[in-house]
Amino acid sequence: MGIFIFRFLVIAFITLAGYFFPPFRLDSYVGAGIGFVLSALIVYLETLIRKSQFKIIWSSTIGTLAGVLLGWALGSIYQTVSEDDSTATFIRIFFLLIMPYIGFLVGTRKFEWLEPPHLFRFFKESSVSSDFKILDTSVIIDGRIADICDTAFIGGALVIPQFILKELQLVADSPDGIKRQRGRRGLEVLDHLQKSAQVHTMISEVDFPEVKDVDSKLIELAKHMDAKIITNDFNLNKIAQLQGISVLNINELANALKPVVLPGEALKIFILKEGKEKDQGVAYLDDGTMVVVDNSRRMIGQNIEITVTSVLQTTVGKMIFGRYNEDSQ
User: Fold this and answer.
1) Among 241, 236, 232, 247, which Cα is nearest to 316's?
2) pTM score above 0.85
3) Domain residue ranges in the chain
4) Is 315 exposed, middle or buried (0-12, 13-18, 19+ CB in 10 A)?
5) What is the pLDDT of residues 237-288, one digit of tens each?
6) What are the CA-CA distances from residue 82 to residues 33, 86, 91, 97, 98 (Å)?
7) What is the CATH number of domain 132-256?
8) How far does Cα 177 stand from its chain's mean position?
9) Which of 138, 153, 271, 326 is deepest in the core (most CB within 10 A)?
10) Crossing angle of helices 28-51/54-81, nearest 10°?
11) Looking at the domain that runs over 261-324, which CATH code has it been given?
12) How far apart are alpha carbons 20 and 29 in whole angstroms?
């Protein structure tokens, strides 16, 4: 009961203050209207703070303030052109009450419209920075996105959804040592991206409670923001493309940047281990490409020169086949 009395007193006091001390030299009734709207907003924000709904606090505040400014502007314009002071005062009060209320409703009911990413897009619509790219967990943990951003190859804004942060935190708190290390690596990558001067990052509070799967949430968010998804997840890549969403795959980029090797070329490699077939050896290039070499099992642990016989492109990468000719050494 005490909290309700306190809220009533706050509204009454600020309304009376607006009446007796109207701001901007306005009419007393206009000042009272402003005081009532602002005090009601304060009381509502207090109830939201108790529920920790920050995104609604943010959007309702922005919506109400925008409504106050718009209402004041419309009322002032009407008063300037009107010859009836009584009607002009009524219209000003009407606008100063109804416009903040409409802004408040927009902020509470359509809070995603007033989220920082959408405001950012509104003011930067003609800029390349309005090109949003959403990061998923796999690409954050992978870490190569940080190096790519440092080279300024990726423009626009990187969006990290709140539900991805939660998933990353769960991985970082995992009892499994390997998962925990991967999760902490992902958090370090995010910290690096936020401090980078080459790219703009933002956290999106938009969630879809009715959607339980994280991949589905990412797809819905990409549709909602008209954004691209950056991922290393093969399944997410295919599902998103089927739904008409642009996907940037770091693995595909890495494969595209690998040097071209043609049959007949000579390569110097280090034979690391034996292959599956008789007398085969296996080596790896600096970019991780596997090289399968015939007639080289006895050369394990040595640097040799081979001749490329064929190149096989698979969905997971490239494989090079070659032959070791002992006579050419």
Assistant:
1) 232
2) no
3) 1-120, 132-256, 261-324
4) exposed
5) 999 989 999 999 988 888 777 778 889 899 899 999 988 888 899 999 887 8
6) 21, 10, 10, 19, 20
7) 3.40.50.1010
8) 28
9) 271
10) 170
11) 2.40.50.140
12) 9
